[in-house]
Amino acid sequence: MAEKTISLADQAYEKIKSNILNLSYPPGMSLTEAMLTKELGMSRSPVRTAIRMLQAEGLIVTDYYKSMTVKEITDKDINEIYQLRELLEGEAFKMIFSEKRHEEFSYRIEEKIVRMCAAAGDVYEWEVADTAMHMEIVSIFENERINKIYESNLSELIRMGQYSIKNGMHIPKTNENLKKMVRYMRKGDYERSFEILKADHFGIGKNSALKKNSV
To answer: How far is Cα 105 from Cα 94, in angstroms, rounded to an integer?
Structure first.
C-alpha cells in the first residue's frame, strides 16, 4: 500500500512539473489542491506530497494566505540566469579550444544538435534538448559543483528558453546556426564558432526572453 502511495505521488509530481515546465501552467498561475486532484484524477494525499516536492524545488510558491502559484519569472531572473550562462559557457568554450579538444567536442555537441533538430516541432522538447547541449559545453570543466548549478537552474532555463522561442527566437534558424558552429569548431576556428553561440544563445535568447513582460 505504501509503495502505491509513493508511486502515485511520483506520478503527480512528474505531471505537475511537466505542466509547469512546458508552460501549460504558466508563471503566476494560481493552483489549488482541488484543481490538481481533479485534473490528475487522484486523491489529495499524493497530490499534496507532489506539491511539497515542487515547493522544495521552488517551482510552486505559497504566500502568507497559503495561496499557491507557479513561480514567476522576472526580468531580474532572466538577466541573472543569462549572465551566469555567459560567464560559465564562455569560459568553457574557450577551454575547449585551449585544451585542443574542439574536434572531440564538435562531435559531442553535434549529437545534441541532432536531437534538437529531431525535436524542432515541439518547443518544449526542443528546449530540453537545447539545455542538454549547453550542459555538454560546460562538461569540459569536469566540475560537479558547476554541474549542480546548472541542474539547480534547469527548470528556469527550460521555461525561459520557451519564452525566447515564443517571442522571436526561431528554431530552424538556430539549428542551422549551430550546425555552422560545429563546422567552425572542426576547423579550429574559435572566433567564428563562439560568435554564433554568443549571438544566438546569449544575445537573441536573452533579449527574446525579456520580451515576455512587454507582450
So the answer is: 12
- Give every CB contact of residue 131 below 8 A, 6+ residues apart in sequence: 154, 157, 158, 161
For residue range 22-54, list pLDDT tens digits in order: 999 999 999 999 999 999 999 999 999 999 999
Vertex 136: Cα angle to 25 and 106 (nearest 5): 130
pTM of the model: 0.86
Question: Cα separation of 54 and 112, whole Å?
Answer: 28
Q: Using CA atoms, how far apart are residues 15 and 86, in angstroms rounded to an integer?
A: 31
Backbone region of residue 177 per phi and psi (left: phi > 0; alpha: psi in -120 to 50; beta: other values)? alpha
Q: What are phi and psi of 28, to 5 degrees?
A: 90, -5
User: Could you tell me where the beta strands, DSSP code E, fall in 39-175?
Assistant: 60-62, 68-70
Q: pLDDT tens, 94-144?
A: 999 999 999 999 999 999 999 999 999 999 999 999 999 999 999 999 999
Give, rounded to a whole angstrom, the gap between the first and last alpha carbons of the chain.
48
For range 196-202, the mean pLDDT: 88
How far apart, in whole angstroms, are the C-alpha atoms of residue 89 and residue 179?
18
Q: Taking CA 69 as the corner, what is the angle to CA 64 and CA 73, rounded to the nearest 5 degrees?
A: 110
- Tell me how far apart the 2 most distant CA atoms of the chain are, in Å: 59
